[in-house]
Write a structure and sequence with these properties.
With 408 residues, the protein is mainly α. It folds into two domains: 232 residues, Serine Threonine Protein Phosphatase 5, Tetratricopeptide repeat (Alpha Horseshoe), CATH 1.25.40; 154 residues, no CATH class. Helix content is 80%, strand content 0%. The chain contains 20 helices and no strands. Helix 9 packs antiparallel against helix 10, helix 11 packs antiparallel against helix 12 and helix 16 crosses helix 17. The longest helix has 29 residues. The chain is elongated and about 85 Å long. It starts with a helix and ends with a helix. The model has no long low-confidence stretch (mean pLDDT 86).
């Protein structure tokens, strides 16, 4: 029986190295059937599960491993990875630090800690950890890539360029380093350099969702308007909270300031340009997703983005139909319904960007908004007494949708 367990364990390790995580899981389960109390096997099973994005199962496997062997470093690392993927960053940080208390010189745990801190939006702390990881493993391409990622997040682009080139010198096929190189190109507006770097990252690790998402963004930056807006958004993301809030409310403040002068041409032009830029900043993302879905790279677009784009197109079509019907039939109130539909289009077009837990409420709200708009159309056409109220609610629902998407 020991021979069966040993053989299954060796095959599982080999399959994991080859990226065949599902087959590796089966082998580790076979070995565990013979040695159910082996914590090392449970940690390896957790690793295979983590690689398949079965985060809850990976967490449970590693908890069991640590219950039997509290000093199992692989179990600490995989458990932290599962916690991080589940959004439980405090638990992830605590788990890594327990591992570091056991093995303070283990560069791999410092590396993982750096990435978790980076995900927790603590780049300054992450840089300290990254430098410590580089001290412990000076010839590691992975630690150099982490330093590059942190410097990029801190806005120190020239230093990040040097770190990523060091990572690629140490390992020209480091997918993370190519991905970070692509991100640095995106920070400068994207274009050909960003596409090339992200394509290389996807080629080296086709299963990396981050690399695939980076490539879709890079492809969209071939449109110079999208690239310019992305550069502005990335720059704004590095500014203090007060600056970001000020930029968000600036169009509303300007509209109030210009209100007394709206009888003058210059004020109308300025307000039109401001409102046009606001609409463009919201519309460019779903429009470019439509373009990408019609291109040969359509397979890169993930499920949530496809759903968001479909909702955007549906609401835009409904809005256009309302505008046309309003012009042809003289039903002015349809214009308000059309504006409501356009607001819903802009909101749902960004649905893939909202936090996962907020997507279902947005979808439910979109269904309600569509139904409300349909009722408002019927009420307007038949001149029902409650038509103004329903029309107002349809328009207000679109405003709420924009607010919800912005907050989430």
């Amino acid at each position: 029986m020991e021979d069966i367990a040993d053989a299954a364990t060796q095959r599982g390790r080999a399959l994991l190295d080859l990226g065949r995580e599902g087959e590796a899981e089966a082998q580790f389960r076979t070995a565990l059937a013979e040695r159910p109390d082996d914590p090392a096997l449970r940690a390896m099973l957790g690793h295979a599960l983590l690689r398949q994005e079965k985060y809850a199962d990976a967490r449970d496997a590693c908890r069991a491993a640590l219950a039997a062997d509290p000093e199992n470093l692989l179990a600490h690392s995989v458990l932290a990875g599962a916690y991080n993927a589940l959004g439980l960053r405090p638990d992830a940080l605590a788990t890594i630090r327990r591992g570091l208390a056991i093995a303070p010189e283990f560069a791999g745990l410092h590396l993982q800690l750096g990435y978790v801190l980076l995900a927790d939006e603590r780049p300054a702390d992450a840089l300290v950890v990254a430098e410590r990881a580089r001290e412990l493993a000076s010839e590691s391409s992975a630690t150099a890539a982490l330093v590059a990622a942190v410097l990029c997040d801190l806005g120190r682009l020239a230093d990040a360029d040097a770190a990523v080139e060091e990572a690629l010198r140490l390992d020209p096929e480091n997918a993370d380093a190519h991905q970070i190189k692509g991100v640095l190109a995106l920070r400068r507006g994207g274009g050909k350099a960003a596409v090339q770097a992200q394509r290389t990252a996807v080629r080296l690790d086709p299963t990396d969702a981050g690399a695939r998402e980076g490539l879709t963004i890079a492809l969209k930056t071939r449109n110079p308007v999208y690239g310019t807006l992305l550069r502005f958004q990335l720059w704004l993301g590095t500014r203090p909270t007060g600056v970001r809030v000020a930029v968000s409310v600036a169009p509303f403040v300007m509209a109030q300031v210009l209100r007394p002068y709206l009888g003058q041409t210059w004020a109308k032009v300025v307000l039109g340009v401001v409102l046009g830029l606001v609409v463009l900043s919201w519309a460019i993302e779903p429009v470019m997703n439509c373009v990408l879905l019609l291109s040969r790279d359509r397979l890169l677009v993930n499920g949530p983005t496809r759903v968001a784009t479909a909702a955007f197109v549906t609401f835009v079509a409904a809005a256009i139909a309302c505008f046309v019907a309003s012009s042809a039939g003289g039903l002015g109130r349809l214009v308000l319904i059309a504006i409501g539909f356009l607001l819903w289009a802009l909101a749902t077009g960004h649905g893939h960007r909202v936090r996962p837990g907020w997507r279902k409420p947005l979808v439910a709200g979109a269904a309600a908004g569509a139904a409300l708009g349909a009722i408002a159309i019927v009420a307007t056409v038949v001149a029902a007494p409650g038509a103004p109220l329903v029309t107002g609610l349809a328009l207000f629902s679109g405003i709420l949708a924009i607010w919800f998407t912005k907050v989430s």
